[in-house]
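Retro notes - structure team

What went well: the batch runner handled both jobs without manual restarts.
What didn't: labels got mixed up in the shared folder, which is why I'm recording both outputs here explicitly, each with its sequence directly above its tokens.

Job 1
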Amino acid sequence: MHIDNDDLIKFENGTMEEDELIEFLSHLDRCDFCLEQMMTQESNTPAASAPAYLADQILGKADSGEVQFAKAANKASHKVQLLYYGLQTAAGIAVALFLLFSVPEIDFSFKAPSYSVQTNRSSPDSESGRLYNFTRDIGQSICDGTGSLAQYLNDFSSKIMNGGK
């Protein structure tokens, strides 16, 4: 059973009951003939046209100074934003290059203290003493490296704050 013209008119006017509408739409989903019939009727129905004055009114508003100013401001704001991001990137690269080429050579290499290995293990105190000296030397090396790094950062920040002096 196919959809008749009365159902199509009811659907177009929006006067169908909810149950009828569900049945109507599910039938259109299954039946290509009725779907084509409905599309043909829709294409034959004249569409509502816009009033004649509306096109002139829209074009006149688009040519107004207010719209042109907003368009130019939007375009300029994009250019300013692009310039801002470009300057940020250039400044970041300049600072990175400055730091790369101005950093003095800092020796961060770890020099393990040398100690002699004794084959006589009769005294446990001498073994713990060597371990103590080894760990103390490691701690001292780390402390010296950290101190020199802190001093360098302090000097660098002072130069930045004082304008390079």
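Job 2
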Amino acid sequence: MKILIVDDEPLARSRLQDLLGDIGNHQVVGEASNGRTAIEQTQHLVPDIVLLDINMPEMSGLEAAIHLSQLEHAPAVIFTTAYSEHALEAFDANAIDYLLKPIRRTRLEQALNKVQPLQRHQLDKTATDQHLSRNHIGAHLRGGIKLIPIKDIYYFHSDSKYVIVHHKNGEVLIDEPLKSLEQEFCDRFTRIHRNSLIANGYIEALEKISDNHFQLRLRGCNALLEVSRRQLPVVRKLISNMTEQPD
């Protein structure tokens, strides 16, 4: 089987290379040092298995696995980690296999023999248990995934059964409901209308356009977004809190 090794530590990747060489019957098709690169490599190399470190810069292994599970040809994933076994109870409960560092050949061989492609519902449950909030949104494009950093998103807008992500480099469609996005990113985004979720950090001004009608202006974005009467007190409080915060 084709294997992609993902770890931010070169020595850890080298050790896995050596162990896989001893086991045999597997081909290491590539390496990556973070979750974002792992997704790019997976789409290019189409490995059967990804050996995925959990704690990595830019994008964690758990977030990367969520995006990998959405690929047309989703690989099986084996997490590798230095976490204590107690901290991994959530992974165990959801049947996500993992290897505890330092990784032993026998344990690696056992994992390779039993892995199956991860299911999105398993990963979502694990992410909730681990209090994970993604740093990227994945949009499906021609069988692949385009990653948009959360920090680059101005707002989410619901349009029929899709949600449009408006970001610094344009816009993309995703099939995630606005409600779930609101729950996941409640510390960074605020609902201003039944169809709009805006990034707090890009709020520039609240403008009155007529009696009981208000709109939000976002920094760096030309859109003027309607604020519903129901959400107006929430928006006003948010802006007041932001104004009161020291520089």
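One thing worth noting from job 2: The first helix runs from residue 10 to 23.
We'll revisit the folder naming next retro.
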